[in-house]
Amino acid sequence: MSGLVLNNVTKQFGSFTAVENVQLSVPHGTFVCMLGPSGCGKTTLLRMIAGLDDPTGGAILLDGEDITKVPTHKRNLGMVFQSLALFPHLSVGENIAYPLRIRGKSREDQKKRVDDLLSLIHLSGYGDRPVSKLSGGQRQRVAIARALALSPKLFLLDEPLSALDAKLREAMQVELRQLQQKLGITTIVVTHDQREAMTMADTVVVMNGGHIRQAASPIEIYRKPADTFVADFIGSTNLIETSADSSGDATIFGHKIPGLTLPSGMQKATISVRPEDVHLTTPGNGAISGIVTFVRDLGGTIETFVEAGGKQIVAVSTPRARPNVIAGQQVGIVLAPDVCVVLKQ
Ligand code: ATP
Predict the structure, then answer these.
(1) Which atom, in ligand 1's list, is nearest to the CA of 210?
(2) Engineered SS bond to 47: which of 53, 151, 187, 204, CB 3.0-4.6 Å?
(3) What is the pLDDT of residue 87?
């Protein structure tokens, strides 16, 4: 396969297993975000792909070639780390030209490539400026251009945007994704920011405890989380216990959910329901009964907290679809069967 393949990649530090039997295919030209809580093993995995750490098991293939033991500088990678590691005493152009100079490219070739890259990152005319005189976002773009100077096969970035303020960061996410699409370069980004992952990735890889819990498109991760961990980690959700009645239909707090059945043989399960899928109505008519405990109007959205069956359920609506309820009011909760995702434990 053209692209990157991780085959049962494992990394142990002494007796501690940081990454275990990771299996992943990244087709050529796709953008993958590795996402997960601190310590889940995402940086270790990226470092193994980069050749900065050796796997203790498994193999890494790039375009069909086993690169597990190939040193970093021979892997044809571009890398950007959180620190950026730009040379502060060099100009923008000299920073971008650095890898070309090391490879012995002619002065003309260097100049042409630097000009092309400056145009690509919207910094034409900035070549002579010291990097110390750039904004955070501009410095970020220079680091990206330098990493792309040798037209690598694989572009690896570790938390590349985390030093930027929130607004700039969002703008750079869009810019990075557009750049990647323009170049068609296989790209892997490590992030702990799920919004960033959802913005940029073709495939989001959710990791926990050294394992991949789910690798799928952003919308599939959101709409069809594979398990309780993914459902809870990505966005907000309501995790609700259900049990099957004698005919296999799911019931929640004693109320049957019409159209929702649990897989055969399953007596109990946790379902995930996104807050925007919780519909509040008047009590009765088979709706789950609850009592409003708090209403939070955030301007763009309204969050209604409802206690039902001793649990808290959150409903989110737009101001136009405002449920118009107040704390202390009895309400009915309606869950459509297609928004209830039965989770693996
Ligand atoms: P963060 O978001 O905090 O950077 P991460 O998901 O990138 O977390 P890793 O840096 O991959 O996590 O670390 C995974 C686990 O491996 C952690 O428990 C970490 O302490 C451990 N670890 C990483 N590098 C080493 C090392 N050189 N020696 C021993 N343990 C290590």
Answers:
(1) 14
(2) 53
(3) 87
Q: What are the pLDDT digits (tens) for 77-102?
A: 999 987 778 888 889 999 999 989 88
177 alpha carbon – ligand 1 mean position (Å) = 27
Measure 51 CA to ligand 1 centroid, in angstroms. Answer: 16
3-state helix, strand and coil shares in percent for the chain, rounded to the nearest 5: 30, 35, 35
**Where does 149-216 have alpha helices with state H?**
166-183, 194-200
- pLDDT tens across 194-247, in order? 999 999 999 999 999 999 999 999 999 999 999 999 999 998 999 999 999 888
Q: Give the residue, by CA position, lying nearest to ligand 1 atom 24.
A: 44
For a mutational test of ligand 1's pocket, the pick from 15, 38, 44, 206, i.e. the residue with the most ligand atoms closer than 8 A to its C-beta, is 44
208 CB within 6 A, ligand 1 = no
311-317 and 302-308: which strand pairing?
antiparallel
Q: Which residue's CA lies nearest to atom 28 of ligand 1?
A: 13
Which are the contacts of 71, defined by CB distance < 8 A and separation ≥ 6? Answer: 51
The CATH class given to the 4-232 domain equals: alpha beta
CATH, domain 236-343, list 2.60.40.2080, 2.60.120.760, 2.40.50.140, 1.20.1260.10:
2.40.50.140
Give the pair of three-digit tokens for residue 319: 């101001």
d(CA 90, CA 141): 15
CA 58 to chain centre: 24
Whether residue 259 has its Cβ less than 6 Å from ligand 1: no
Q: Exposed, middle or buried: residue 286 (CB in 10 Å: 0-12, 13-18, 19+)?
A: exposed
**Token pair in block for residue 230:** 């993914």
pLDDT (tens digit per residue) in 41-81: 999 999 999 999 999 999 999 999 999 999 998 998 999 98
Q: Residue 139 class from Cβ within 10 Å (0-12 exposed, 13-18 middle, 19+ buried)?
A: buried
Of 9-18, 98-107, 124-133, 178-187, which one has max mean pLDDT? 9-18
